[in-house]
Amino acid sequence: MRGPATRPARARRRPAAPPLSRARRASGKERELTDQADTVEHGSTVSLTGTGAAVRIEGLLKTFGSVAAVDYINLDIKAGEFFTLLGPSGCGKTTTLRMIGGLERPDAGKVTVGDDVVVSVSDRKFVQPDKRDMGMVFQSYALWPHMTVFENVAYPLKMRGLRKAEIGDRVEESLRLVGLEGFSSRPSPLLSGGQQQRVALARALVYSPRVLLLDEPLSNLDAKLRVTMRQELKELQGRVDVTMIYVTHDQTEALSLSDRIAIMNSGRVEQVGTPQQIYLHPATAFAQDFLGQTISIDGRVDGPGVVKVSGDVENLIHVAMDSSKMAVGDEVTVAIRPEQMLTHDTMPGGADNRNIIRLVVEEATFVGDHYEYKGQIGDTLAVIPLPSNKQYAVGETVYLEFPESAAAVWPKGAEVADHID
């Protein structure tokens, strides 16, 4: 009887190696780039200094439905300057920046960068964002979380097809400019907020753009870090020849960083000038009120260069004004910067009530480095900040004296003010 047939033993297969996961493939690629970053010799002679370009905006319009977010604005931004678009939320500053960068298409108008027209609605011309030679830093840092610092900064160069050696040199120099030497291999999620913002800056500068667009880049940082980053941005602008267009609602940022500022309101430009010009000589009531602290007092023109405070028989304000725009009896608003006022406990001796206003304190609030005093100046209810080294109690009278140069006056409700030069 034949025994049961035996099957020949099968050769045991060696299990196939599992396919590399996307994450592992990425990590291998990251190691390659990180190794490249770590072997770059220090002291590279590469320079990221480019040539900042002038930017001209002509008749730029952007509507959303029936709302004109940007209302036929015109701006001339000089090559290499730090130019800030300043205004409250919804004024059109970010929309303007996005149209310059090509992230929004305007409904009308033209944008020229250097000698190149990048958008002209009438000519049906629109240059894509990646062809405009501009860098952009967003409010959110927009770093790729799966990449290292080196990879994030190198990405624009890889997309442009640069050689590895040049990429390494440029990334090293860009990180040096923003104070992140030695961070090449650090994963971006392990960075602090300030470090992430520096990486975003380095990435925007690494290919030497003609124009750098910054959309409220410091707004996500805490107060102390914002001060530090402001100082670093100012120093960086001095080292790199690039035109910077900066968007913010923060007055301190605008004043401390800018060569010139454009104040925007409801889609329009209220005033363009240096920080000193705009602060000391505001062109509109909005500019005066938005930038810094202002005491606004209602009155009537009492004579050439004289305003009588409404509701008060004693207070007269002497200020230069255009008699062709304001006649005796016209209602006006006078605006005064509080830091230009001198305080007196009694009426100054020999005074003729010229540019001295009287405030009876109705409420006093301590806010750290100063007090805010609320009270009537004629018919106007005013809140006046004064240094905290002297405290006034409720019911006390304070006499506030100021020079003619501290006051601006315009017809009540009018847009454009007359200034003291």
Describe the structure.
- This protein has 421 residues and is of the alpha+beta class.
- It folds into 2 domains: 226 residues, P-loop containing nucleotide triphosphate hydrolases (Rossmann fold), CATH 3.40.50.300; 119 residues, Nucleic acid-binding proteins (OB fold (Dihydrolipoamide Acetyltransferase, E2P), Beta Barrel), CATH 2.40.50.
- 24% of the residues lie in helices and 30% in strands.
- The chain is built from 9 helices and 21 strands.
- Helix 3 packs across helix 4, helix 3 runs parallel beside helix 5 and helix 4 crosses helix 5.
- It is elongated and about 80 Å long.
> Approximately how much helix is present in the residues?
10-25%
Low-pLDDT runs = 4-45, 415-421
From the alpha carbons, calculate the radius of gyration and give it in angstroms: 30 Å
- Named at the architecture level, the CATH assignment of the largest domain is 3-Layer(aba) Sandwich
Largest sheet: 6 strands, mixed
Number of strands: 21
* Gap from first CA to last CA: 125 Å
Report strand %: 25-35%
DSSP helical segment count:
9
Domain count: the total is 2
CATH domain fold name of the largest domain: Rossmann fold
Looking at the structure, what is the overall shape?
elongated
**What order do the strands of the largest sheet run in, or round the barrel if closed?**
7-8-9-3-10-11
Q: What is the CATH class name of the largest domain?
A: Alpha Beta
> What's the CATH superfamily of the largest domain, by name?
P-loop containing nucleotide triphosphate hydrolases
Residue-averaged pLDDT: 83
The SS-based structural class is alpha+beta
Order of helices and strands: HEEEHEEEEHHHEHEHEEHHEEEEEEEEEE
